[in-house]
């Protein structure tokens, strides 16, 4: 998968419709989340689309997240968020400025508020999970 910086460079070059297509393509690249993991316990609250996030701790102590949404563009946003935290240690995740990493994409200006309103809740869930594992 491309780095966040590479994606931003491509994203910045594109117009609105092509940016949507890029996000949709990113979402298609997400690791498949088994339907059995899409439960009320893994549902992110406050999203207009359904978003599920399931954390797994690897043997090396890093966290790996499975995530999915029933909305194609939202899946792309999830993919951007995961690029900032995937397979990192809980301490690294809690120290990561996820919002700052996503800021160059200016998602709030590019997408409707319905598409972006759940991002802070997803980020909070990831941080809470990392903090719990770091303790």
From TrEMBL:
Residues 14-128 form the Fe-S metabolism associated domain. PANTHER family: SUFE-LIKE PROTEIN 2, CHLOROPLASTIC, SULFUR ACCEPTOR PROTEIN CSDE. Belongs to the SufE family. This is Cysteine desulfuration protein SufE.
């Amino acid at each position: 998968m491309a780095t966040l910086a590479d994606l931003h460079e491509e994203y910045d070059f594109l117009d609105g419709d092509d940016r949507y297509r890029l996000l949709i393509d990113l979402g298609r690249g997400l690791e498949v989340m088994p339907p059995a993991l899409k439960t009320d316990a893994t549902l992110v609250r406050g999203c207009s689309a359904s978003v599920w996030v399931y954390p797994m701790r690897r043997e090396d102590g890093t966290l790996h997240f499975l995530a999915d949404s029933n909305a194609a563009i939202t899946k792309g946003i999830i993919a951007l968020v995961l690029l900032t935290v995937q397979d990192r240690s809980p301490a690294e995740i809690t120290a990561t400025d996820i919002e700052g990493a996503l800021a160059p994409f200016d998602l709030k200006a590019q997408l409707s508020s319905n598409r972006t309103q759940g991002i802070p809740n997803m980020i909070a869930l990831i941080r809470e999970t990392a903090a719990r594992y770091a303790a």
